[in-house]
Amino acid sequence: MNTRPGSPPLGERPGPPGRSGGLPPPAERGATVIPDRVVARIAAQAARTAQSRRAAIPPDRSGPAAPSASAAIRTGSVRLHLSMDLPYPTDIPYVCKRIQRDVAEQVAQLTGLEVGEVTLTVRRLVTAAGTNRGRVR
User: Fold this and answer.
1) pLDDT on residue 55
2) Which residues contact 69 (CB under 8 A, 6 or more apart)?
3) pTM
């Protein structure tokens, strides 16, 4: 550890110049406000990640549109609404619950907000490319 002669030890050094040591407590300094649209963008990205991990959407030209999201923040809690495509066939209730949980955890972790509700609307079911769509005999 290198210190200049005559300087106090590292733990005893004063703070940055011009900064008073008597700052008010953090709760009295103000609050960080995250707009609804920012939380919605975070939720949409989390939904994209969860969709690819949980639903295994087939990649084709008529593939799924990106998930969309909206958010409503009220007193430290957020309600999310997601809208996305899912593959067919799949266990829709199971996949939806997993995606909802993944998105809620990710949004809470990144924003510090409590996620009160996540609703999910399935826009359409996407079938695999090249699936034989003829009649079964």
Assistant:
1) 74
2) 40, 41, 43, 44, 47, 80, 81, 82, 83, 103
3) 0.69
Tens digit of pLDDT for each residue in 63-110? Answer: 568 899 999 999 889 999 999 999 888 899 999 999 999 999 999 999
Chain mean pLDDT for the chain = 81
Confidence of residue 7 (pLDDT cuts 50, 70, 90): low
Residue with tokens 């958010």: 71
Bridge-partner residues for 73, per DSSP? 78
Q: Which residues contact 94 (CB under 8 A, 6 or more apart)?
A: none
CA-CA-CA-CA torsion for 58, 120, 112, 46, nearest 10 degrees? 10
Beta bridge partners of 117: 79
State whether the Cα torsion 105-106-111-112 is positive or negative. Answer: positive
* Cβ within 8 Å of residue 49, ≥6 positions away: 102, 106
Strand order in the sheet with 68-74: 68-74, 77-88, 114-127
